[in-house]
Design goal:
The protein is of the alpha/beta class. The protein has 14 helices and six strands. The radius of gyration is 27 Å and the shape is elongated.
């Protein structure tokens, strides 16, 4: 950079190289990670834009309290090392098609090289494998209290990297110390773990709008479209239209809302409507129906954000409740149990017995079992009257 000149804005910088878009086989992990950043825009305005394979694997444009944009450059690595990530691997010259002998840039050098804009820069490394103890400090958020109290570990890490990569500088004149203090190392383990977190985010978002939708439907009708969106952005040609590679906060939330509304209109009835219909058909009074709806709502909320029982306990409860209800329903259909409100009372009595019988880590609340039964009913797996033969 010329003396006295100022670096350009992030919006006026060309990619260092354009080879990343070619032959995207093996980029599935990166695409799921990109979806996770897009989903952050649903509940927060912190992430304003997600750029796919522009300046780095993923580039995040963030807002700040001072009104100035911040930039976070994200490298995603889903590779089998046969060992934990180490300082040596971080500083090792990467072997590429163009540089099969490893005569190129290391992961750290590639990351730091993006520090060439006027906006404050931060960095993130996302891997599917853990780091060793030398890099553990980078797994804590940049502004965390732990990092601030472990300055000796930070200094030692900077020294060891400096010995391997002496005198490296970004175009903005920043070196290893800047990178180490501005990087966050995140471990996501697998495609499946990232995908499950993303699906849960969508479920919570839709549930917050008062709609219950099955994870299978979300995965097939919504999540698949999300993956298509980030893949299209990654595969777009920067030289032809840079904007095609950018997913913008307001545009994205509007697009996803419209997509979800379409799926809900075509495939989903309002949450609790089937439960009400089945209870009314059984001649159950309206006050019981209102209580059942509230128990079902609280049960769904607990399933999505467990605070008392863990997920494995919830699965066990649902399996046992479903099995017991199947048994009772078979007796009702065989005229061994009365139908209607008396059968509803029989089901409630069975749930009260189950509270003390279930082998869960914690004793479940009776309201949890009630909510489970009402949710099962709403999903058309239970009823309180005989079906016509």
């Amino acid at each position: 950079m010329a003396l006295g000149s100022f670096p350009p804005s992030i919006r006026n910088i060309q990619p260092i190289e354009f080879g990343g878009v070619i032959a995207r086989q093996g980029f599935v992990f990166q695409d799921h990670v990109a979806v996770s950043f897009c989903l952050e825009m649903l509940n927060s305005s912190l992430v304003e834009e997600v750029w796919c394979e522009t300046l780095d694997d993923i580039t995040l444009i963030k807002g700040s309290f001072g009104g100035q944009e911040l930039v976070e450059y994200v490298q995603v690595k889903d590779i089998e090392l046969g060992q934990l990530w180490s300082i040596a691997k971080l500083c090792e010259h990467e072997k590429t098609t163009q540089n099969p002998d490893g005569v190129g840039f290391s992961i750290l050098e590639r990351s730091l090289a993006h520090d060439r804009c006027v906006e404050p820069c931060f960095f993130r490394i996302i891997t599917s494998l853990q780091v060793n103890h030398d890099l553990e400090i980078l797994g804590y958020p940049i502004n965390s209290q732990f990092r601030q109290t472990q300055s000796s570990k930070i200094d030692k890490l900077i020294t060891e990297i400096d010995q391997r990569l002496p005198n490296i500088k970004s175009e903005n004149g920043n070196g290893v110390d800047y990178w180490v203090t501005h990087v966050f190392w995140e471990v996501q383990y697998s495609i499946e773990s990232v995908m499950q977190k993303n699906l849960l985010t969508i479920v919570n978002w839709i549930f917050g709008r008062g709609i219950t939708i099955t994870p299978d439907l979300i995965e097939s009708e919504i999540y698949s479209k999300l993956l298509e969106k980030v893949r299209s952005a990654a595969e777009a040609d920067w030289k032809k239209d840079p904007n095609q590679k950018k997913i913008i906060h307001d545009d994205f939330t509007s697009w996803l809302t419209q997509l979800a509304d379409t799926v809900i209109t075509l495939h989903v009835t309002p949450a609790g409507s089937k439960l009400q219909e089945k209870m009314e058909r059984a001649g159950i009074a309206i006050d019981y129906i209102h209580s059942a709806q509230e128990e079902r709502r609280l049960y769904r909320q607990e399933i999505l954000n467990p605070s008392y029982l863990d997920l494995s306990d919830h699965r066990l409860i649902e399996a046992e409740v479903l099995s017991n209800l199947d048994h009772l329903r078979a007796k009702m259909d065989n005229s061994e149990e009365p139908e209607g409100f008396p059968f509803y009372k029989t089901c409630l009595s069975k749930l009260k017995e189950l509270v003390d019988m279930l082998p869960t880590r914690k004793k479940p609340l009776l309201s949890t079992l009630h909510g489970c039964m009402h949710d099962i009913t709403d999903r058309c797996f239970h009823r309180y009257v005989r079906e016509p033969r």
